[in-house]
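Sat 14:20. Reprocessing the chain from the morning session after the first attempt stalled halfway. Input below, unchanged.
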Amino acid sequence: MINFAQIEAKAGNYYMPASQVKTDGTVLGEHPNTYLFNVRNYWMIGGYDEDFAGAYGSDGNFRKNATGLGLREVKTSAWHTVVYRKEDIFDACTHDFSRKDGPYYRAHFPHLERKRRSQAYIPESPIRFPYVEEQI
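Finished this time. Tokens:
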């Protein structure tokens, strides 16, 4: 649960949890792809570019865009992520998938190399997949 009272939300900031906690209680560094944005800042940078959907290990591109377009990354202890291992959940570990420089990535996502190596940019059309808003 996020303790929003601990986050002094300021315009121009986005927030990352300061730590991950393994299910055995071991504390690790932050997860590189967990963020808290306000809506205005998220869309100011163009959202999360869906060209990278399925391209494991490409979360750095989103961070590059956020900081390159003027947002400041702030680590917070208001929440943490939980790390599940293969021992906890069968498919929780993704170390078998190649990252951005592996053969799978190069074969299936060659068009992303230009974006990955570019300076910060705003995605032209960040939402291209069908989504349905569920009412709870």
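The mean pLDDT is 78.
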